[in-house]
């Protein structure tokens, strides 16, 4: 299979663990040079970013480890600047950095609320803000934000219909992830004529933030049996490719062999789903997803 991201430079925030790591590995496997930003270190002092970079380099890829704080202007600026200094350009930004605090609103502290809003919303804002000048100068770029199914919940029509209501992860987490959807769709419109696309991912996978199994997804559509974050990564790589050049401002759900393209306004009735047993390839996604978005394959 021909690598479809050759000569591209990607930056993945939160790329040392979980979904971010799987995305970084997939982008590198498809030929991109990948900068991985992650502040996490385990008890032995081993950095998650450094560990992911070693794995990429051992597979023959090119990568750079960063440990900048994306919630500060200085950290986000250094993160992007170091990436461009190292590789000469920036083509792809995937914002996977996130955290979570569980609990209903009345149990959340102000500090917990601020922590989630800072990493999810401010982190996305600053990462995009610092990356955009380089993409605008190139007249091209791909931004994939990471939101969540927790950003929206179907409210039951009556109490009798509420017995299967999915429990929210937390009020703050859901609010932050909903904000990311607003940022994504609005930024896509701002950049409509620039050659830069902005799309949001709704992943379902077992990671350090959500180790438990998801029983089902929004709208009662059964979730895929696989919760491997590696099965989500091909959908991200597709959105970063030339095949998705005309797809922007869209929300894509991915879990195992399930991929759903939502309407622009999260119209569940207007969503389109594809499913297979096993992991999708880029060629398969490039053939099937563009028509669902109203775009001819290869357009």
UniProtKB/TrEMBL annotation:
Signal peptide: none
InterPro entries to which the protein is assigned, alphabetical: NAD(P)-bd_dom_sf, SDR_fam
GO molecular function, one term: oxidoreductase activity, acting on the CH-OH group of donors, NAD or NADP as acceptor
Record's keyword annotation contains ATP-binding: no
Record Pfam families: adh_short
Keywords on record: Oxidoreductase
GO biological process, one term: fatty acid elongation
Annotated family: Belongs to the short-chain dehydrogenases/reductases (SDR) family.
Protein name: SDR family oxidoreductase
Species: Amycolatopsis acidicola
């Amino acid at each position: 299979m021909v690598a479809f991201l050759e000569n591209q430079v990607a930056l993945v925030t939160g790329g040392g663990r979980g979904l971010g790591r799987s995305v970084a590995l997939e982008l590198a496997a498809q030929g991109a040079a990948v900068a991985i930003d992650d502040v996490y270190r385990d008890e032995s002092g081993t950095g998650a970013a450094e560990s992911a970079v070693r794995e990429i380099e051992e597979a023959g890829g090119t990568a750079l480890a960063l440990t900048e704080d994306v919630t500060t202007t200085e950290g986000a600026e250094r993160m992007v600047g170091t990436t461009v200094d190292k590789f000469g350009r920036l083509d792809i930004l995937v914002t996977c950095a996130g955290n979570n605090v569980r609990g209903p609103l009345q149990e959340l502290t102000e500090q917990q609320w601020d922590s989630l809003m800072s990493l999810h919303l401010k982190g996305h804002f600053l990462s995009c803000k610092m990356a955009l000048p380089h993409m605008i100068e190139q007249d091209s770029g791909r931004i994939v934000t990471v939101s969540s199914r927790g950003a929206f919940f179907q409210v039951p029509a009556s109490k009798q219909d509420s017995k299967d209501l999915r429990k929210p992860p937390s009020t703050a987490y859901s609010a932050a992830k909903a904000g990311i959807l607003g940022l994504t769709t609005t930024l896509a419109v701002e950049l409509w004529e620039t050659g830069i696309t902005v799309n949001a991912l709704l992943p379902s996978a077992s990671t350090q933030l959500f180790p438990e199994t998801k029983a089902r997804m929004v709208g009662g559509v059964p979730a895929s049996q696989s919760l491997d974050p590696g099965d989500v990564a091909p959908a991200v790589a597709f959105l970063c490719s030339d095949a998705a050049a005309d797809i922007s401002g869209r929300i894509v759900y991915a879990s195992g062999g399930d991929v759903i393209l939502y309407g622009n306004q999260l119209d569940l009735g207007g969503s389109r789903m594809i499913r297979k047993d096993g992991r999708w390839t880029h060629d398969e996604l490039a053939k099937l997803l563009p028509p669902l978005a109203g775009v001819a394959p290869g357009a």
